[in-house]
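fyi for ur records
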Amino acid sequence: MTIAAEEPVVLRVPDFLNPTQQLTMPLVEVTDSNANPYAARPNLHVRIFAQTSPPQSIKLLPALECLSRAHGQGLLLNVNTLVVPTSGNYGIAVATLAPYFGIKHIVAIVPNDIAPGKLSHLELLGVHCMKPNRARGETSSSLAIVQAKKPDHLLFDQYTDPGNQASFKKWLAPSMWYKTDHKLTVFCAAMGSCGTIRGCYEYFQELTRPVTVIGGVCDFNDDVPGARSERRLKQIGFDCSKAPFRLEGDISALASYSTSKLLCQSGLVAGPSSGLAHFALLRFLNRHEREGTLNQFRNDDGDVVCAFVCADDPRYYTDKYSTHLPDNVALSFMQLMEAPGDWSI
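which gave:
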């Protein structure tokens, strides 16, 4: 079968970055059995799709929505500088889009352990990066508030801005629902700022056949960029005991980086939080398969159709893979399942 090449499309930068103009977020089925053990067992009728990110990162969606809302409400009038608390990706997205809203400068309040690659990317975009001084008792929040009090400055906080959650309800969830021909049954995302999972959950709950939503939570003793442990989720006001959706807890850095590497080797651009989300989904499915309760997640065609979010870029963390993986070798899903761990929340 010969497929004719389409005419090349030439876009302006604002259209390329704007999901309302060019929604470049392909949904890609994971068919490599190393990354997806269900691919080797077609009789189970379990299909897994990776929801890829738009240009830059998934944070482009909330950055655009929050900037658009602030502009529409007149909050950007006479504002010269945005103060953005960020671990990296959101700050990069805001810095990429802000010039199109008339904002000249970005001050990013970043953690002391920010990935060097993210810090370099922010600086490449002309962002002034500041770290809290722990010796003086500063936190990212307190430093951001102080900086935002300066003339012509505005605090631009994804953790409190309703546009964060709204952007995923507006763009990401409908896109997945449409691209699976309304047959999606299970959705999973790593829990960081929680905008992705909250927004998608809200959209899926309004459907006539709600989609099962799973949040992947990082292990208490580990650090996975873009994901939080139960304790760190409480710091941003999310109480796991009151979550309206299902949780897969205590996912280790070993599982996250191993699964990320397997996804990368299958051809996907998937960082550690992407690996965490995929592992959380696989563990959820595996548990229900063993318990004989997998059928409750099938659609009318008899298929379990799943999607997880590939939210981050592994190239920021290349040095971390050798740190977290013994001999820099990714473990398979079954090997990871045999590792000890308490997964309850």
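The longest strand covers residues 212-218. thats all i got for now
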